[in-house]
Fold each of these.
Amino acid sequence: MTEDRNGDRIVHMITPEGADLVFALATVGERAIAFAVDFVLSQLILIAFVLLGLAFTFVTTSEHVLALAVIGAFVIRQGYFLFFEARLQGSTPAKRLLGLRVVSRDGARLSIESIVARNLLRDLELFVPLAIGVAPQQFLGPAPWWLRVPAMLWVILLVALPFLTRERTRAGDMVAGTIVVRVPKAQLARDEAEGTRARIRFTKEQLAIYGEHELETLAELLRKLDLGKASDDDLRIIAEAIARRIRFEGREPTQQPDLFLRTFYREQRTELERELVLGRRIADKNERKDRPRGPRA
Amino acid sequence: MTDSFEPSGADRVSVPARSSIPGHDPRSMRFRREREAEWAELESILDRAMTRGLSVLHESELQRLPLLYRSAISSLSVARKTAMDRALVAYLESLASRAYLAVYTSRTGERWALVRFLVDSFPRAVRTMLPQLALSTGLFVLGLAVAYGLVRFGDSEWYFAFVDPALAGGRSPGATTEFLRNGLYETDAHGLSIFASFLFDHNARIGLVAFALGFAAGIPTALLIFQNGLMLGAFLALYDQHGLLVPLCGWLLPHGVPEISAILLCGAGGMAMGHAMLAPGARTIRAALTDAGKRGAVVAAGSVFLFLVAGFIEGVFRQTVTSDLLRFAMASFNASWLAAWLVLGGRLPELRLLRDQLVPSTKAGTAP
């Protein structure tokens, strides 16, 4: 499996306890945005630092201050990503903003070697293609065609690498053995089965029609209802449709569709989970058709 | 409500045929109620630990974290097998994944990380790539010999094939001996440290790119090293023709020792990547490349320190000290600390062991 329900490309990591965890990979677009923001941020820090250095040089009239400023500028330019990825657990300020994180592909701790490697290669990935694009003549010089053609092909490959590889690794990631994932951040939603004390009864047969898919669709409707995004009419239509399908006799679907749907959801889930414990996962209503326990319609 | 009349065993396998058991909660709901507090506790710990690392946690939280993590993993496994609530499973997947990242991938801040890197990791990494270092040195020496031979014994016009006239600054075959000699003993008193830091910036950048170019199977790195050799060879030949070889070496070697070493080391790092791509051996190319790349990155990063030293010797020492004797003394001093560093760095435990073997009495002396 390479994509999950939302269409995100994913990677599996097996924990030492044997659980299979799934991480969504950051898209190339997200990573490009993160880089752009980080780049601007690092340039701003650099400019502020250089201005400060110049001001100090002016005040102290010492050339050594300027020399230190030059070295400081080098450190900021090369060290921005290094420092933040080492300090902020594999994310830079922009990556943190976008919820991205660099992780080691083998699931171990992100080593300083990996951080250094992926960031040393970034200069190459970014500035060599830029330089060749802007001034090919100057950069490639008087190289003969048999050197020029493979060089160009290689540069194209270098730039296209994140689009070509399954795990969207750029050259730096490949050398460092890293991937960039989204930090998972699901909230625990209210349990839709909570808080309904049932006054409506369903028979075994009535609960033997729908499967997991329909249950989940119903849960989504109830969640919309919590957010005030579903009207009473919607509820009534759906409640009545369900009532017809399961041959429910009573006036609740029309009069109290909210209560009916919540109670039905809870009873249906109880029933499906009971089946699940017995080893029967019923995916949807179609799966019921060939089952002997289904209602004879 | 009829709860009290119904059998209370929600876990029983057989259920009354006619009706469901109203009022009984879905399993997953009870499961969630029992564990929810633990999940919330884990989440509150993770919210702080995810970006700032484990060091922000209290001791009690540090002890709880692995327990809560394992509990979350087990909750996830149970939920995947028994819960029909997709929101719950998705939440637990996210919680367990975050906890996994915190427990297994958190980086803890090391004290003296930079010092340890230079004293320990860098020389160790250098020693893992001796074949590549030999190769890059060999290419450099080859370039040097070729250019020297062509300029010295062939047509001196070859000089311009190896040295960019813009960089040469008049130091070309047409120049007088006097001009060349003056260039070697020129002194300067102003802006030295600025000159030094610019030299550092320029050279370090070239070194790092030389390493990174190793990603193209090491070929551009090899060319770059060879070309540097050519340039130096042409210079040597030019000055040799004017009988200035020894003064040139005195001018060149004090900063040349760390600088050329740094270039060769960056080259070795890049060639290690190339080697991994062309001959990965029993491993996959990817695995070999990652291994070589990480070691190469350490070597290249450590070389930045050498470039810094070289920049200051070139920018300050060379411009102020004109005595050949002092210059050669500086060069040999640099060569010795560099060699000692690369050979002995990160070998303290081995050295202790060696000392104990050679001098067994020290052990006996410290025993009570």
Amino acid sequence: MAIIDDVRTIISQSLKIPVERLTPETRLDELGAESLDVIEIVFGLEEKFDISIPFKANEGTRLTVTDKSGSEEMEFSTVGDLAGVVKKLIEAKAPR
Amino acid sequence: MNCVVITGIGVVSPIGSARDKFWSALVEARSGIGPLSGIPTELLSTRIAAQVRDFDPSQHFEPKQESLLDRFAQFAVVAARSAVQDAQLELSEDMALDAAAIVGNSAGGQTSLDDGYYKVYGQRSPRLHPLTIPRLMSNAAVSQVSMDLGIKGPTYTIASACASGTHAIGQAFHMVRSGQVPIALTGGTEACLSVGTIKGWEALRVLSADTCRPFSKTRTGLVLGEGAAMFVLETREHAMARGAPIYAEVLGFGMSADANDITAMDPDGAARAMRSALIDGRVNPEDVDYVNAHGTGTALNDKGETAALRKAFGANAEHLAVSSSKGVLGHSLGAAGALELAATALALHHQIVPPTANFEEADPDCDLDYVPNTARNAPIEKAMSSSFAFGGLNAVLVLGRA
């Protein structure tokens, strides 16, 4: 399954909304996700992919994601953003 | 000073979560103690507990709300809802702004704490569920009660181990009596049957292997329990104005500290709390008919409590009917005082003294009338409910017939 589909499933379960409503462009805040919801989604993604997402509740939706080639600022607002961050973190932990 | 009455009682207990089932099991001395189930027991030597068995959270909560609630908060919310329903209370916006919620519990969300520690230390898990802290904090139960019912007045939790429920209700009683609040939701809740907590109790070597036999010479110790009881307290005026049912009047509340031993009860401290409750309620010792005892089924408690009753009541102790509900309910720590106050209020309401269950043989050091095994029809005008906590903290309530 593509990463984005897992991300959609986890968001849909956490917010109790149909997975069909979630496109890559869908923003979490327009789905009514509150801060605890976002934290729960982050937890779900971390558990699913065994990664650590550098998300801080009081630091907005910009994440600093670090991999072997350095650090990168990434947006964490839409379903597609989340999938991108997850993909980057999975690649970062993969042995080369 | 206002006259304060109990108009609603809600329970979640090892003998059922409907008030009628709860009361009939108490009267018939049908024990809720049974085989410990639902948690891994391979690390435990304890095999019995008074567990709440008929409780399905999904019947009471949407999945979203349920994920926020430790079992101790679930119990409190369900008991609070049934107390409000029992009181036929429509909490208007104005009333909710002034209402208090005071809930006792001994150690917060012990199930969530235990699960979390197991994940971290046992499974070396790199992360915990994000709601771990909001679930386990000691005030989670009372906060969830406030959120669920919309209560916006004074709201907090009281922790005094096995006296928590009684301290909470006493505090709420004084707030309503003084006019600080017109109405209060109050009680106690506990869900302590986790592996870690039971292990701690095993280390104290006070747990019974078979059952709880308060005041009986053949006693073998206490049995842990769980549950919650919540009450609607309001002024008699308020209750009458809205035509509410009245179970009992709350007359007096007394407290004391032993300043002595961290675990052993001190008859002198316990007796001072009893006397203080009588004085607070302007009740003469000879007017008390029934005492729902702390009666844990440990030798130290039962002998000490008997001595305390003799100290507080003098010669009148001979005429008291004294029973412990812990043979039926087990010891639910911070909920115990609340569940036992429910038993006491219902005793007044039904004019029946519930018995001490599992009583086998009289103990020369416990020489009062413990109403062994069989309930008694008897006129009850005034009744007392006592709780004595580890740490030497004592809390006693006195109720009167409605």
